[in-house]
Amino acid sequence: MNTTVEQADFFKTMEDKSDGGKLRGDYSKADDRYVVAQDWSAYTPEQHELWRRLYQRQARLLPGRACDVFIDSLAKMEAADGIPQFDRTTEALYKATGWQLVAVPGLVPELTFFEHLANRRFPVTVWLREPHEFDYIVEPDAFHDFFGHVPLLFNPIFADHLQEYGKGGLKALKLDGLSYLARLYWYTIEFGLMQGPQGLRVYGAGILSSGAEIEHCLTSPAPRRIAFDVERVMRTQYKIDSFQETYFVIRDFEQLFNDTSPDFTPLYAKLKTLEPLPADSLLAGEVNIGPNPL
């Protein structure tokens, strides 16, 4: 793939965001949608073993913490024994909800990301973290993308929601609303909680692929846990290098889909007149939902 002006701008933007750091993926063989072939045969035995360790740790943490639909879907994916082959998962996923997995070198431009989602294609990074990054990684890797995100794509309601999010992203790019939509993604798809009959449960991929935050978000008294409200979420800043100071709680995926279905154009206009809220804020009248009992 030849480096175009747009791609050069993307790399420069990512370097600026990471204080000069370079994206880790190999973008030299990506097509114009940033899709690459997953060279599954190139993964080493050590990488497959690292995947198994990551999977086993997270799988032990899921009962009583992850939402049931995530646990049920993950069990059907047969991904415990090593790095999965994305095309095999795609076969089952397409039959279930019409989604496909596409292999990518790593982070992709926002326009490309939204276009993939809007067309029911989920980008999954091909590279895996190093052993010393077992507990924390800066860029999303194959384990975060696959383990954290893919299981919920087997749920029809969540799958439809993510496609609509992609369509909304394409619109937000034209309305200068991307920062607000990014907060929505962060506080739902990455770090969302759900209130079920047996207490709080996790559905956000950033938590589900984390060794420590999956317990912290449910039982620690430190963070705020606030009932989901679209405008409130879009006003709230977030942290990228520490546990979240606020989590937003939905009742179910139907609420997430329905509450994010309206046209955001007037909301973006309103939000531009309001100051953003700190990540640890609790507004008058809001209830701080208590943690699950230890």
Description:
The structure is a single chain. Helix content is 45%, strand content 9%. The chain is α/β, with parallel strands linked by helices. The strands form 2 sheets. A 4-stranded mixed sheet has the order 4-3-6-5. Helix 7 runs antiparallel to helix 8 (178-190) and helix 7 runs parallel beside helix 12. The protein starts with a helix and ends in a 23-residue tail after the last helix. The relative contact order is 0.12. Residues 1-5 have low confidence and may be disordered.
Pattern of helices and strands: HHHHEHEHHHEEHHEHEHH
Question: How do the strands line up in the largest sheet?
Answer: 4-3-6-5
Q: Would you report the number of β strands?
A: 6
Oligomer: single chain
Q: Uncertain regions: pLDDT < 50 for 5+ in a row?
A: 1-5
The mean pLDDT is: 93
Q: Tell me the major beta sheet.
A: 4 strands, mixed
Structural class: alpha/beta
Provide a short characterization of the protein structure.
This protein has 294 residues and is α/β, with parallel strands linked by helices.
Task: Describe this protein with a few key phrases.
13 helices, 6 strands, two-stranded parallel sheet, single chain, 294 residues, disordered N terminus, alpha/beta, four-stranded mixed β-sheet
Describe how the helices and strands are arranged.
Blueprint: H1 5-17, H2 45-61, H3 68-76, H4 86-97, E1 100-104, H5 110-118, E2 121-125, H6 142-149, H7 156-175, H8 178-190, E3 193-196, E4 199-202, H9 205-208, H10 213-219, E5 224-227, H11 230-235, E6 246-250, H12 253-259, H13 265-271
Parallel strand pairs: 1-2, 3-6, 5-6
Antiparallel strand pairs: 3-4
